[in-house]
Amino acid sequence: MDIVKLAIRNARLTLSVLLFLVIAGALAYQSVPKEAEPDVAIPVMYVSLVYRGISPEDSERLLLRPVETKLKSLKGLKEMKSAAYEGGGYVLVEFDPSTDLGDALIDTRNKVQDAKRDLPDGVEEPTVSEVNVSEFPVLVVTLSGNIPERVLTEAAKALRDKIEEVPGVLEGTIQGSREELVEAIIDPMRLASYGLRLDQLIQGIGASNNLVAAGALEGSEGKYAIKVPSLIETPKDVANLPVVAGPNAVVRVRDLATVRSTFKDAETI
User: Which residues fall within 8 angstroms of residue 245, CB to CB, at 6 or more apart?
Assistant: First the structure.
C-alpha cells in the first residue's frame, strides 16, 4: 500500500518511469537479432545405403537390419526410423536434445563402419550426415494439368529457372519428373531375316554413341581440344544408326526396330 500511495503522490515521476520503460523495451526489441529461417540444431543423423538393383524387401533384410542392430547401442538414442526402397534404403537416428551433435555424428559413423562387415558385397560406401533444417525447402510449388508430360516438365524447368533468379534463393529442384529416353522396339522377325543377332544390334548402337577425342590444335592464341561428338541426339538419329554395312547396302536400326521417344518408368508416386 505504501508503494501505491507513493506512486499516486508522485504521479509525474511514475509516468516518467513508465514511459522510460516502454521506450527502453521497444529499443531493446528492435536490437534483438532475428532470423526468418534460423539454423536450428536438431540431434538427428541420416544414414544412406545404396545397392544398385536391390529390391525393397532385400534392402530391408540385407542392408537396414545389420545397420539398425549396430545403431541400437548408440548413447543418447531417442528414436530410430528406416525405410527401404528399390536400390537402397536409409535410417534416421534421433538423439536426446542434450546430446552433443559432434559426438553423435562421430558415434553414428563408427557404428555404421562396424556394420559394413555384415553388408553384402557391392554395397556403395554408406554415408552419414547431420540433418540441417536450413537446407530443407521453404517453398513447394505444385504444377498439374491435363497436358502432355513433356510440356509439363518443360514448364516446371522454366519456373525453376525463374525462382532461382530470386535474390536469396540457393537452389531449386524438380521432383516427380521422369527422365526422357529413346525406346527401340525390336522386331525379332526382321532381325532374323537379316541374319543378325540382338547383341550385334546393341553393339552397333553403342559403337555409334561414343565421344571420341581427336587430339588438339595449337595456334598463336593457344591450344584447343578437338572431340568428335556422338551421333545420338534425337529419335531420328537412333533410327538412322548403321548396324552392319556391306558392299551394296547398310542395315540401319529403323530396318530392325520401331524407334520412339518416351520416358523412364516412374520410380515414385
Answer: 251
Q: At what angle do helices 11-31 and 2-9 cross, to 10 degrees?
A: 100
Per-residue cell: 85: 526402397
Please give the Cα distance from 87 to 62 (Å, whole number): 12
CA distances from 125 to 51, 113, 144, 178, 235 (A): 9, 9, 37, 27, 37
Q: What is d(CA 27, CA 5) in angstroms, rounded to the nearest whole number?
A: 30
Phi, psi of 244 (to 5 degrees): -140, 150
- Can you tell me the distance from the alpha carbon of 195 to that of 201, in angstroms, rounded to the nearest whole number? 11
- Could you tell me the pTM of the whole model? 0.43
The letter for the amino acid at 224 is Y
| DSSP label of 147 | S
Contact 75, 90 (CB under 8 A): no
Residue 109 and residue 93 in contact, taking contact as beta carbons nearer than 8 Å: no
Question: If we measure between CA atoms, which residue out of 130, 135, 67, 65 comes closest to residue 94?
Answer: 130
Handedness of CA 180, 182, 186, 187 (dihedral sign): positive
Closest CA to 68 of 43, 87, 93: 93
The string of DSSP letters for 13-78 reads: HHHHHHHHHHHHHHHHHHHS---SS---EEEEEEEEEE-TT--HHHIIIIIIHHHHHHHTT-TTEE
Per-residue model confidence as pLDDT tens digits over 189-206: 988 888 888 888 888 777
For residue 183, what are the CA distances in angstroms to 188, 202, 239? 16, 13, 10
pLDDT tens digits, residue range 18-51?
888 888 887 877 777 666 555 556 788 999 999 9
